């Protein structure tokens, strides 16, 4: 397992932690760009976004004691020079602010207004330059009341880097006041994409301020926004002269009672490109599956040795268990048997919950490519639920040895090697029964075609969101497999 996984060639979707962004700043300064000029570039970027979007009005710039406040002083100076009526409130003793902030605060030292709700009275626009991304404690009540007064007064709020109270690393939010616009620099941070931080940012704009992309060779990002550039080069392409077995044989274990879940998964795997897709179904439900499926082959499990015989077929190279399987001893045994083949396995729903009494037994059995697809409830049955979503997902992937898709409006895909991706394109219409079964099927189809687990998971999650977004209101999970081909057309030649 590499200590530092190699980032993809395209790092435009890299997400930087607060520490990594600090390192990028430091490397830029060491290369010859003075720190106070880097701060001026940041403030200039924010001022440019403001003047391009808003008509001149009364502005209050709220500055904190650190570099975020320094950016705010630059914004205030540039807006005043452009003819805007500007006042600045500082949440600190001017003698105790950072050196670069002090450099840009000089024109304002004699005319600062007291920090508090009165400072924003009558302002049409408020610039939040109080804390930035690195705040490690809840903002004090003065900040909370001041931002609330700005919102209550109808002012537009523009946040520099992140809205005050939002963690750049975790997306946790100690203040519920949402910005209308957030301007950040060089690269986004995880907290811009994780909930609830994402909701607090409003419109998010990334501006370049003189930091060169080659610093990422030393910073080495491991967390990314889930965009096609992350997995496009790994996406299976059609091969002239190929046959169905070249595209893999996917197997879904079907349940005896809830048959719809496995059927949706199987159709999803086939739509994702698996050359063959089969369902292994209990004898008691075999006729239900056969009547409902055409191109999906149905294999009955009538006797004790039927599953072992099926798994002995080496052409089956990817398997899914969980949707509608039931939380039973049989599900546990089948999951362990699949994992024992060391071929690609997707574990979803009941195949996760059934290991709640003994998660370590499951983790010890994972010796080959494996993707788990829990929602928060299923995750809690197997893993520690303390900490932010990104940290929990990465720790769970490392502990289990599987790629983990922790589902939600801000789905996180995490790999045991430390890489992670945060998804942002999922519409709220995916909050419908069965959509997770379809996602598991998409992952299965990608794995069957030979994609590595992390890339397969990221591609499936993104395409799941894109398919749902193309449909709009009224979406049912069973619609999703038939929406996938239009999404695939963008990428598969």
Low-confidence runs: none
- Could you tell me the number of beta strands? 17
Fraction of residues in helices?
25-40%
* Mean residue pLDDT: 94
N-to-C span? 33 Å
Structural summary, described in words:
An 11-stranded mixed sheet has the order 1-8-17-16-15-14-13-12-9-10-11, with helices on both faces. Strands 3-2-4-5-6-7 form a 6-stranded parallel sheet. It starts with 13 loop residues before the first strand and ends in a 5-residue tail after the last helix. It has 493 residues and is of the alpha/beta class. Helix 2 (35-53) packs across helix 4. The chain has helices spanning 18-30, 35-53, 67-81, 99-105, 141-152, 190-193, 197-201, 216-219, 259-271, 286-292, 306-311, 329-340, 350-353, 359-365, 376-382, 389-400, 435-448, 453-471, 480-488, and strands at residues 14-15, 58-63, 85-90, 125-129, 156-160, 181-185, 203-207, 223-225, 249-253, 276-282, 297-301, 316-321, 344-347, 370-372, 403-406, 412-414, 420-422. The longest helix has 19 residues, at 35-53.
């Amino acid at each position: 397992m590499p200590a530092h996984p190699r980032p993809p060639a395209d790092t435009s979707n890299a997400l930087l932690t607060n520490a990594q962004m600090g390192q990028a700043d430091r490397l830029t300064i060491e290369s010859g760009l003075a720190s106070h000029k880097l701060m001026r570039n940041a403030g200039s970027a924010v001022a440019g976004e403001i003047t391009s979007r808003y008509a001149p009005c009364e502005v209050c710039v709220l500055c904190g004691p650190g570099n975020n406040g320094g950016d705010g002083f630059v914004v205030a100076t540039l807006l005043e020079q452009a003819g805007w009526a500007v006042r600045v409130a500082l949440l600190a003793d001017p003698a105790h602010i950072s050196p670069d902030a002090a450099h840009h605060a000089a024109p304002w030292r004699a005319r600062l207004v007291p920090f508090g709700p009165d400072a924003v009275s009558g302002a049409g626009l408020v610039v939040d330059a109080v804390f930035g991304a690195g705040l490690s404690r809840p903002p004090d009540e003065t900040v909370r009341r001041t931002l609330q007064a700005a919102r209550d007064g109808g002012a537009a709020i523009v946040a520099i880097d992140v809205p005050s109270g939002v963690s750049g690393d975790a997306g946790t939010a100690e203040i519920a006041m949402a910005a209308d616009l957030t301007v950040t620099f060089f690269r986004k941070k995880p907290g811009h994409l994780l909930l609830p931080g994402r909701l607090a940012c409003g419109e998010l704009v990334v501006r370049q301020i003189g930091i060169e992309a080659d610093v990422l060779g030393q910073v080495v990002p491991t967390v990314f926004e889930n965009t096609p550039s992350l997995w496009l080069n790994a996406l299976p392409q059609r091969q002239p002269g190929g046959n169905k077995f070249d595209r893999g044989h996917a197997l879904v274990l079907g349940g005896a009672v809830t048959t719809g879940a496995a059927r949706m998964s199987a159709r999803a795997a086939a739509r994702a490109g698996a050359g063959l897709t089969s369902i292994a179904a209990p004898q008691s439900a075999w006729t239900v599956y056969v009547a409902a499926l055409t191109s999906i082959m149905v294999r009955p499990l009538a006797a004790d040795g039927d599953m072992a015989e099926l798994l002995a077929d080496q052409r089956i190279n990817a398997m899914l268990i969980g949707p509608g399987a039931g939380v039973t001893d049989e599900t546990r045994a089948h999951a362990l048997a699949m994992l024992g083949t060391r071929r690609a396995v997707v574990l979803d729903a009941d195949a996760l919950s059934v290991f709640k009494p003994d998660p370590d037994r499951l983790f010890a059995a994972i010796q080959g490519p494996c993707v788990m697809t829990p929602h928060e409830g299923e995750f809690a049955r197997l893993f520690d639920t303390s900490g932010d979503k990104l940290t929990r997902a990465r720790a769970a992937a490392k502990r289990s040895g599987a790629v983990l898709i922790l589902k939600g409006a801000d789905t996180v895909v995490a790999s045991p090697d430390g890489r992670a991706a945060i998804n942002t394109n999922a519409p709220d219409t995916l909050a419908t029964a069965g959509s997770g079964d379809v996602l598991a099927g998409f992952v299965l189809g990608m794995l069957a075609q030979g994609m590595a687990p992390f890339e397969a998971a990221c591609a499936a999650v993104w395409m799941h969101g894109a398919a749902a977004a193309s449909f709009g209101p009224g979406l049912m999970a069973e619609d999703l497999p038939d929406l996938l081909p239009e999404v695939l057309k963008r990428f598969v030649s």
